[in-house]
Amino acid sequence: MRQAALPRARLDAIAIGGSAGSIEALGVVLPALPAGFHAALLVVLHLPRERPSLLCNIFRQRCALPVREAQDKEPVEPGTVYFAPPDYHLLVDSGPRLSLSVDAPLNFSRPSIDVLFESAADEYGPRLMAVLLSGANSDGARGLRAVQAAGGATVVQSPDSASSMAMPQAALALIQPDQVLPPARIAALLTTLHKEGLS
Description:
Layout: E1 13-18, H1 22-29, E2 40-45, H2 55-60, E3 67-69, E4 81-83, E5 89-93, E6 97-101, H3 113-124, E7 128-132, H4 141-149, E8 153-157, H5 166-174, E9 179-181, H6 183-195
Parallel strand pairs: 1-2, 1-7, 2-4, 3-4, 7-8, 8-9
Antiparallel strand pairs: 5-6
Helix pairs in contact: 1-6, 3-4, 4-5
């Protein structure tokens, strides 16, 4: 497990992406975040397109932070968890505001992690952390590279802690992230950032 220095800029957003096995990882990370956590959390998971998501119902009961499904054009509020709805890309526009798109799937996925990470990198730059979790394809690797190029912090779930290793491995083949950690250590990192006044 690799660890680098904490971000120097205060984080205004944490973008999180994952696919197979990522709900279990999120179940460790999100409930650990305290009320008063500053950064907004923008979450894209690969979900079946044909039925409603139950993620908000699952996590609303377990989290100290407000949890909701992202709505098109709504302002991003600090300390709020936003889940991308099924079959829509989630982007961040200037403001910052959320935007939903029905553009073609990327990496066979809509919502796409790359789409979220790249748009969030454009808006937040060094005030962004991107976290890539367990998953079965390469979505998210290119987006992490964009976050890194914009000066943001990058975290990848350690492959040996992921039930589907392909997504973390694809990211590690493309970039050297700031942190490679299992879910419990990702949760600890975010709570440390909060205590340090960085999130």
